[in-house]
């Protein structure tokens, strides 16, 4: 199958390749959110509070926490070029290390040695109503999924094309829909293609083929035993993204449709308003305290676990769905990327360049609407790849036809190459094609994939998963501690931290009303919940 022969793809590539339009390719935005556990020198979860020197986890826009006090999240500002993003991500790491003492950042997506659930500290955001709402939401996550699962970490990649590209394509293709609708439809089509082909990302970049035995203690599984402390699957790429990761019976039947934005919004709106009997049995209070925001399938929209999401920056008083309804899709968030344990920041430039080419391919190529059969087929390809992606001769299903993973991967690389060449023509270099060819080698030689490299090291060194990840964590810690922030960088992040603490204190001192009323108003969608997730 040749993706290059697609008429729509060829036309759009030619349109953006015109000299007057090519500059638009440099105007899209990129951003990275990196999650990472704070750990002790002996690979145990750090149970200390979020360091005050890093500012308020509620209001610091670049250094916050995700689920736990121990699960840091670093957020880069949106930038036009990924090299700037990666430089900023590196600087955040260097500043954080200047405040960590003897603690370290965990190098892997799968957790370090975790204590019993009751000892894992849920993220604390102060006593303001919005801070308490964030905390109660996380209490609900603990009840619904367990704290261990919430300690899994990943890389989120935010991506947008220049807004001007959508009306340009619209005019060239004679589309008469409002520009906002055309842009939203374009991103939803990108998401459909992404879901068709996201198995390729898991094969190329999956980096969690093994986990600590203690992570699944008390749970049934079908993993093999590597040693007394390590479980694995011999051909797995990303156990993080398998059914061993984020599990939810409530979400099992929740499969939002991506044929248009309205269908997606309708599906999630139903989930955040439809009670789920097991959650209703738990209730919202225990011993007079809130333990979850509501008893619905989802407490909030972002509780839905997806490999990719349509996104829109929200305004004061909006929930994510309301922002999408009001102004359409602004960018997409890729959520399936494992942390690369060989990279200090968890991701490198070659991976990011490949993602940019891959996402441009998904945006420009024809993207037929999906039905339940195609949705199931894509989900099965993904599930098969994360558990046995490197199995020799593995077959995936492409429109009902069985095809070898390697053959399909080669076809996709050829298709993506046209997008990579277009990006390189705009830049005047070969960065994207170089990244593409690097990934092609992994298709030809599975032993080059990160998942294969990790398993090979575990076996060769007779290391447990924890020992391997701790070794990598120590190397990365040495790297960052040898490169402390300069005076300007230190001053910037110190000022950001101090201002965030002051902002949180002001929120706590000036708020009015009680928390119950706040929750009631939140359910009525009349509050600023921008900091919720």
Automatic annotation (TrEMBL):
InterPro entries: Gln_synth/guanido_kin_cat_dom, Glu_cys_ligase, Glut_cys_ligase. Residues 14-383 form the Glutamate--cysteine ligase domain. Pathway: Sulfur metabolism; glutathione biosynthesis; glutathione from L-cysteine and L-glutamate: step 1/2. It comes from the Bacteria. It holds the Pfam family Glu_cys_ligase. It is an enzyme of class 6 (ligase). Gene3D superfamilies: 3.30.590.20. GO terms for biological process: glutathione biosynthetic process. It catalyses: L-cysteine + L-glutamate + ATP = gamma-L-glutamyl-L-cysteine + ADP + phosphate + H(+). Keywords: ATP-binding, Glutathione biosynthesis, Ligase, Nucleotide-binding. One of its GO terms (cellular component) is cytosol. Its EC number is 6.3.2.2. One of its GO terms (molecular function) is ATP binding. Belongs to the glutamate--cysteine ligase type 1 family. Type 1 subfamily. This is Glutamate--cysteine ligase. It comes from Glaciimonas soli. The gene is gshA.
């Amino acid at each position: 199958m040749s993706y290059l022969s697609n008429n729509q793809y060829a036309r759009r590539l030619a349109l953006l390749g015109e000299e007057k339009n090519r500059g638009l390719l440099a105007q899209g935005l990129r951003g990275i959110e990196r999650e990472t556990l704070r750990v002790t020198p002996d690979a145990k979860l750090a149970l200390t509070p979020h360091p005050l020197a890093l500012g308020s986890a509620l209001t610091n826009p670049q250094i916050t926490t995700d689920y736990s006090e121990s699960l840091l999240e670093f957020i880069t500002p949106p930038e036009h070029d990924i090299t700037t993003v990666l430089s900023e991500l590196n600087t955040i790491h260097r500043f954080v290390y200047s405040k960590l003492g003897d603690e370290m950042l965990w190098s892997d997506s799968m957790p370090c040695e975790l204590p019993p659930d009751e000892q894992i500290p849920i993220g604390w955001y102060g006593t303001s109503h919005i801070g308490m709402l964030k905390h109660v939401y996380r209490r609900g996550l603990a009840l619904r999924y367990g704290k261990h699962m919430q300690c899994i970490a990943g890389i989120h990649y935010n991506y947008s094309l220049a807004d001007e590209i959508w009306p340009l394509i619209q005019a060239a293709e004679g589309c008469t829909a409002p520009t906002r609708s055309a842009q939203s439809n374009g991103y939803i089509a990108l998401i459909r293609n992404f879901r068709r082909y996201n198995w390729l990302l898991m094969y190329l970049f999956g980096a969690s083929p093994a986990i600590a035995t203690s992570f699944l203690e008390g749970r049934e599984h079908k993993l093999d035993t590597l040693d007394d402390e390590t479980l694995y699957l011999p051909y797995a790429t990303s156990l993080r993204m398998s059914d061993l990761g984020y599990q939810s019976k409530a979400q099992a039947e929740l499969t939002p449709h991506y044929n248009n934005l309205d269908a997606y919004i309708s599906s999630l709106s139903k989930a955040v308003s439809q009670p789920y009997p097991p959650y209703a049995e738990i209730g919202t209070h225990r011993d007079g305290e809130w333990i979850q925001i509501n008893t619905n399938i989802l407490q909030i929209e972002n509780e839905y676990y997806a490999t990719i999401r349509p996104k829109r920056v929200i305004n004061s008083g909006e929930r994510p769905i309301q922002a999408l309804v009001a102004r359409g899709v602004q960018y997409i968030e890729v959520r399936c990327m494992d942390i690369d344990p060989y990279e200090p920041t968890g991701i490198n430039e070659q991976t990011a360049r490949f993602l940019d080419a891959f996402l441009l391919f998904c945006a420009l190529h024809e993207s037929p609407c999906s039905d339940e059969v195609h949705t199931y087929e894509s989900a099965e390809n993904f599930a098969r790849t994360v558990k046995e992606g490197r199995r020799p001769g593995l077959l995936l299903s492409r429109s009902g036809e069985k095809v070898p993973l390697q053959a399909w991967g080669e076809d996709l690389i050829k298709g993506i190459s046209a997008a990579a060449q277009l990006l390189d023509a705009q830049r005047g270099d070969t960065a994207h094609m170089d990244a593409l060819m690097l990934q092609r080698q992994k298709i030809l030689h599975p032993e080059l994939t990160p998942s294969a490299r990790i398993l090979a090291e575990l076996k060769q060194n007779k290391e447990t998963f924890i020992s391997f990840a701790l070794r990598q964590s120590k190397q990365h810690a040495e790297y960052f501690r040898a490169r402390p922030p300069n005076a300007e960088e230190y001053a910037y992040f110190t000022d950001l931290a101090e201002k965030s603490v002051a902002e949180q204190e002001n929120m706590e001192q000036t708020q009015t009303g009680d928390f119950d009323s706040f929750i009631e108003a939140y359910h009525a969608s009349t509050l600023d919940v921008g900091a919720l997730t």
